Amino acid sequence: MNTEVAARPTLFRQALLSARQGIHLPSFDLSSQDAALAAGEPWRVRLQTLRGGKQEGVNVVEIDNGRLKLSVIPTRGMSLLRADAGDIRLGWDSPVKEVVHPQFIRLESRSGLGWLDGFNEAVVRCGLEWAGHPGPDRFRNASGDDVEMNLSLHGKIGNIPASEVEFSVDAEPPHRLRLRGLVEEKMFHGPQFSLWTEISTEPGSLSFRIEDAITNHDAHPQEFQIIYHANFGPPLLEAGSRFFGAPSSVTPFNTHAAKGLNEYDRYTAPEPGFVEEVYCLYPGGDAAGRTALLLQNAAADRGVEMAFDVASLPCVTLWKNLASLEEGYVTGLEPGTSFPANRRHERVAGRVPRLGPGETRRFGLDFSALPDAAAVTSVRERIQALQSATPYLPR
Amino acid sequence: MNTEVAARPTLFRQALLSARQGIHLPSFDLSSQDAALAAGEPWRVRLQTLRGGKQEGVNVVEIDNGRLKLSVIPTRGMSLLRADAGDIRLGWDSPVKEVVHPQFIRLESRSGLGWLDGFNEAVVRCGLEWAGHPGPDRFRNASGDDVEMNLSLHGKIGNIPASEVEFSVDAEPPHRLRLRGLVEEKMFHGPQFSLWTEISTEPGSLSFRIEDAITNHDAHPQEFQIIYHANFGPPLLEAGSRFFGAPSSVTPFNTHAAKGLNEYDRYTAPEPGFVEEVYCLYPGGDAAGRTALLLQNAAADRGVEMAFDVASLPCVTLWKNLASLEEGYVTGLEPGTSFPANRRHERVAGRVPRLGPGETRRFGLDFSALPDAAAVTSVRERIQALQSATPYLPR
Amino acid sequence: MNTEVAARPTLFRQALLSARQGIHLPSFDLSSQDAALAAGEPWRVRLQTLRGGKQEGVNVVEIDNGRLKLSVIPTRGMSLLRADAGDIRLGWDSPVKEVVHPQFIRLESRSGLGWLDGFNEAVVRCGLEWAGHPGPDRFRNASGDDVEMNLSLHGKIGNIPASEVEFSVDAEPPHRLRLRGLVEEKMFHGPQFSLWTEISTEPGSLSFRIEDAITNHDAHPQEFQIIYHANFGPPLLEAGSRFFGAPSSVTPFNTHAAKGLNEYDRYTAPEPGFVEEVYCLYPGGDAAGRTALLLQNAAADRGVEMAFDVASLPCVTLWKNLASLEEGYVTGLEPGTSFPANRRHERVAGRVPRLGPGETRRFGLDFSALPDAAAVTSVRERIQALQSATPYLPR
Lengths: 395, 395, 395
Known about the structure:
Three copies of one chain form a homotrimer. By secondary structure, chain A is mainly β.
């Protein structure tokens, strides 16, 4: 599908969906045995089509690597619905139970909050033209005039169906399983972004990687934003769960969040009516520029780690929505190119990057389910060491 | 599908659509003979999928009980498209001829009047978060701030596809035919309503019942509204048709309607350019709290009765749109928890109820097609007796 | 499908899509040989369904008359995606590559510019209730009040799926191939328009005709607008391409366009960041009231002609978007009932016609691909003669 991938030898490759080739498989089910790989770790990949209500026609691809099961939603911008590894669940329980087809999403509704009608994923991208809060921003229209435009919450990319989806298995051990997708955010007299995304995992592993390439196909430089809205609920999230990062600064998003600043990295039990608290962190990186975030449970024997480069994703938003289980008891660990304020605010703060004509920017995130105290401790100590080396700096 | 129903013995039960089970039958056709019930009254139920234009993919379930045929639209919130009993038609002729799929509805369009792009049902629910006229109302957002939100006409529930649909036949005579559906109006940081609705009828009957259960799944009390927008056109509606109810007060909705107050319960012939008139009634109830509404034709030998509890549906909106046949010559008899003004107005008037966490409110409406003068007279006299016992009260 | 057509003897007739009959063919493929017409010019017609991304489920009908191939999009209001005749391409390269299903279009988004999310056709209709620029206009609502409504760019008709689509072949030579479609723009308390459109061509011809009939089904007169937004890019459009018409006046749309007035009919090479220029022309007609427009390439050996009646389409908008290839290097030759300013402006200028109750207005456009210098010269000289006979008049 692009030369970079075509060059890697594959044991198996199958287009599940392709606008260019006119392919949309009604179903797909392949296992390591079918692929004549019975000798290695067992795995299975399945494409399903959901039915009923607002999820009618939604595709979900499940990749089970034997220890970890990923559920990806091509119809919703290749978001990750959830990931499960034994009793570790990456994801949360939203009031939105169905996997909502974008045909039913009206981003402009509710004064720009329509995105919330479909929000229930473990990892959903915010972006690409804008990624933050709704409200007016100014842009230059096709007549060369500066006009005001109302942005909608978290942008469009999470509600655009993928145009190309391909599953492949590396020819070389460890026979990495890869699901690639193309999501296009393009319009006339507007941005022309493509997002090539790959979510991949090795058979038998507790880790997976998201690798994204965002390209500006316009003849002009174009502002863009991306925030990886990764969300975790019970059982990882519970009273006594803790967040670890290596921030050089922690800034409350508003005066409400400021009241909880001293406890910003600790979690309480579900509390009906809890008003969300948001903190803005600049994570420090190691010598290679890598940083990591950790959410651990109360017993510190289960956790999730997210690792990424601070150069590409310099901002981390920590979202605490410790409301009732019915409302959605959830925390978001959200690496991004910016914080989620309205683009007009982020622009002034210098946090809205541009892509030149034809330019591609790459982003990678490594997620790991941590199955025991040893794994959790190891990650935590690594982050604490990084924190020790990261001076707190006023911004 | 819920315990209440599971407990009732059924002769036959079939899920036609189920988000939970991944079921969406492409078609379904069952008759009393198929169900080994040839000895009783004949009936037939069919699921069809509409094609073409804005109705592509819309499901309609027709329940023919031998004398009465109900057409229900799972794709449009389980609305009743029409009911036919011989020459009696419950329903009307809207300029909207197709049964519009919600994917084509933009409630926010036309300054909040997008609901009108699909309006052609005999009975459509307005609700559940709001049910009335468009325009700004204030609400408290997830950050705890009071913000303004533009409501759209008549709310969302009529344009949400059902998530679960089941047809069943009671094991016990009279072998009632039941179509149950679940419609969910849920979002993150917003209301979490489920509507379980059942429309049912007995073989050979001229009556049917709508029974709804609305549940608030949130951990908080939540405002809600419901108005049953029941609409009737020719041949029941004609010059000389009359409305009968037992109101304790009749209030014109605006100064325009006030001019027609003396004749509010009488109907004239279609008149191009007729500006709609709306009247707000508080119906009186009998000893059991029941009230009834009647629309009879000019000869008083055909009619429709609607009966319900005044405690649950204390408000009746009478809508007269006596415009040309092309524009839609129609009257609405609309029992509701409120009148159709904007929610901010209804709230001040004390007509916006709340549901507590986990609380369920039930609503029932009995519709009867009245096939002759005797049937019409009987209902009219009952309502007139109720009117005599209902003192007019200033509100 | 209507009496006019039913009266014409056909060799072949097939409904491809019909809301009334419940027909939606999954595919269709017929050639002159299948139709027992092998003796004449060969032709072929095919219905395809696109897959993937925002084009999932979109129907495209290709009519290949042996020399000219037309691609029509029933799902997008019967727009013409492109027409190809050898190395002549009517159409352009939009940044929007997919043929976007209306389910993904939000006309109200981006301050009323949502139409641009799907804009990539060779010919798309703007209309019918309004056709021009977004922004507020005033209208009278169902309560008889004058209220303000925000219009969206270019109206709704281009994003409404056809309700009826029929392919037929004339019984009589030259066995004209006809694709007819019905697109309905109807709502309650709003306009009730039907558009019956036919696109037709003769086997072996380089020409095709669009014939439209717009009917007001309301009991009232109703304003309407239509602009045929015909768009051409490379290779017809290049540095040195020229436009020819016979205008009695040429008015720049704004002060920006005024700067380019002296060169309004000449085209330059793609220029990144080119701000679109729009000119408003009143074309003169010949004795029969016909006029023609020509776009010729730099060598004047390839071109496209559009011919129509000035009485029905008195306004021509010339749109020059000579931006980079990536942004969309394209010119629009747009005959219409008005220019594309907001309806409130066009109304004041007397350019918003009305249709009486039941009235039908017909529009016809003849397109010809011009394959050589002789053909181009012939059309150009005809237009130049018409220009000589058309006095420039101040408006």
